[in-house]
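Suppose you are handed only these lines of text.
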Amino acid sequence: MNEKYRKYALVELHLHLDGALSSKAIIEVAKKEGFDLPTFDEEELNKYLVVPKNCQSLNEYLEKFDIPNLALQTEFGLRTCTLDLLKRLSEDGIKYVEIRMAPQLSTQGKLTQEEVVIILINVLRMGEELYGIKSNLILCLMRGASKEKNLETIEVARRYLNHGVVLLDFAGAEALWPNDIYLDEFKIINGYNIPFTNHAGEALGAGSVKIALDNGAVRIGHGTHSYQDEEVMKYLIEHKIPLEMCPTSNIDTKAIKNYQEMPIKQYLDRGIIVTLSTDDPTVSNVTLKDEYAHLQNDMGLSDDDLHTIALNTINAARLSEEEKEQLRQILEKNL
Ligand SMILES: [Zn+2]
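From them, the structure of the protein bound to zinc ion can be written out as follows.
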């Protein structure tokens, strides 16, 4: 399905590890490590991983991450689940992915945040050798977590920045723990010169995006409601800040009602750098080529618009100019 859109779907910039696991990998880890699951049948387990279409809110959506996180507590679990993900992405034609995850959510066993990150950096390199897909990590601070744990994540990011880690992020329930309570964390991150993206303007409005921009975000996760504030729109345009947009996830979390409500065309026409990702491909049961198909079939975007978005997504990647040029050549060759 949607094979026709595979040519655009080369780069994922916004993909959460725990929202992208297969039931097969989770079952394999559970069997080896002896933890319980509601079912050991792959298809049955999917019902616990995929969000129902009548999901009520971002908070209900976030409950879908409980089972995947059980499988991400050991070196074996992190390796099995992440390699399985990289294999599936590479089979889907993805050439580069920035995988984001909160290391503090994988410390329920014996691992420290730093050990989690070291394991994952090695696994990502392994994935490149095995499946030819390039990848980097984005480390997420968690909204609602203790300050101590988030500060530890910042320290780990500082140590591995440009050695497998490319950005920090703030993930979790934006409406419950909004950006304005993290001004201290923004200051520390900026003091270390760590570039960051920020989930903003998803559950909340443009005010949340404004705080992220005022504090120096280099990209915005979603930014769906940026149109509510003309000043925010102008800033995004003038400073060329890419938005990591994920339409299906926005519908699932009730950030928007349907694809037609997604302001992508409006943003493109204003000259905003719109990029496209899936957010949580397992939870939303969607692939990147499906998302490109939605742009055309449900939002009426032209082939040229899709090309622009695919190009924007490559250009917004945290890669060298040379690496981006290689991806641009693949895109042009595919078209
Ligand atoms: Zn996200």
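What can we learn from it? Residues 14, 16, 171, 199, 221, 279 surround zinc ion (CB under 6 Å). The mean pLDDT is 95.
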